[in-house]
Amino acid sequence: MTTTLSQEKRVSGHGVSQWALAWRRLKKNRVALAGLAVVGLFALFAAFDGWPFVLTRNDHGLFAIYPPECIPPACAGGSLSTNAPPSTSHPFGTDSYGYDVYSEIVYGTRAAFVIGLGATGFALAIAVSIGLAAGYFGGWLDNLLMRLTEVFLVIPFFLLLLVFLQIIIKFSPSATGGLWLVVFIIGAFSWPGAARIIRGEVLRVREFEYIAASRQIGASANRILFRHLFPNVLHIIIVLATLQIAASVLTEAAVSFLGFGAPNSYTWGQLMNIAASYRRDTGPGWRIGIRQNSNGPINNENCSHAWKDCRRNDGIPGERSTRTDRSRNEADKRQGDRVYPSRSDDHP
User: Fold this and answer.
1) What is the CA radius of gyration of the chain?
2) Percentage of the residues of the chain whose pLDDT score is greater than 90
3) Is residue 255 within 8 Å of residue 269, measured between CB atoms?
4) Hey, CA dihedral for 101, 105, 106, 108, is it positive or negative?
5) Sequence-distant (≥ 6) Cβ neighbours of residue 77 within 8 angstroms
6) 159 to 142, 249, 305: CA distances (angstroms)
7) What is the mean pLDDT of residues 173-192?
8) What pLDDT digit, counting tens, does each position of 60-77 carry?
9) Which band of pLDDT confidence, cut at 50, 70 and 90, is reported for residue 20?
10) Mean pLDDT for all residues in the chain
11) String of b and e for 194-204 (b: at least 16 CB within 10 Å)?
12) Where are the domains of the chain?
């Protein structure tokens, strides 16, 4: 016999938090759990194959086979082998310089997390601030912030990113910190779409009765914004974060693949740039695909509970709106069964 949520509350003696409800829903979706497991595996790669586990050029992490930038026989014995096929000593083969592709991919996982989480955190911090302020206060502040958002929407930030990186490489080829510049530029120009979505949700939530009651009892604007409005738009922010993480990693990979990557940094895009001249080095490409597609099931789980019409809008891959197809087929059938009068009937 199943128990309702109110019965569970009475038995436990306290209410169920929103995070507990979200985890309960997530556990029922096996595809989302599989995607979460893949993301967790890459998180282990990033955590145990960098500092403090790799302190010198002769150290390798828990999952990597060779140290960073290791070219046998100088660092690990054996013989130099360039463009070698996959083998027991090199699971993904070697590139044109003799580096082990698998080890370099593992070392690039940390850069992928830095780019994805850093750019997403920076972009959403701006988007949440602008969306909450514009949606709650309205008036001239709303007009000013939305016009500023529209200006950023038309700026081609991808070309701007290429220009900034090319300038750094030109004047300082061995400069460090280029990866953080990529994070800054991606985050600084990725917030407009999220800000407009958050603003629209705030416009809807601020009309609820408990918001009006909070104003009547004298609650400050900061309390209403961060105590009442922000928790009620958090589900939207989570969905936007999962989408932005994937977009940020793909943007950096595209920039590095074109040869404008940050110098002195391990990234999957730079490995793809090296592999472009030799078709056997396909490891970085499918590793990026698996990493980014693993966000999809988790995002679909969040999306299905954030917007109830997500399934109708093709929020779940592979799902189609049967209602739209059925109505279209019925319209086509009526159109085919209709009998149009001939010209001779109109003019006897």
Assistant:
1) 27
2) 22
3) yes
4) positive
5) none
6) 29, 16, 36
7) 81
8) 667 888 877 777 766 766
9) confident
10) 75
11) bbbbbbebbee
12) 81-293
Q: Residue type at 119? A: A
Residues pairing with 94 in the sheet = 100
Query: Which structure tokens are listed for 60?
Result: 């390798």
| Architecture of the domain spanning 81-293 | Orthogonal Bundle (1.10)
Cβ proximity of 202 and 135 under 8 Å: yes
Given a contact cutoff of 8 angstroms between Cβ atoms, the answer to whether 262 and 165 are in contact is yes
Query: Residue with structure tokens 């499918």?
Result: 286
Pick the more confident residue, 332 or 215.
215
pTM above 0.85, yes or no: no
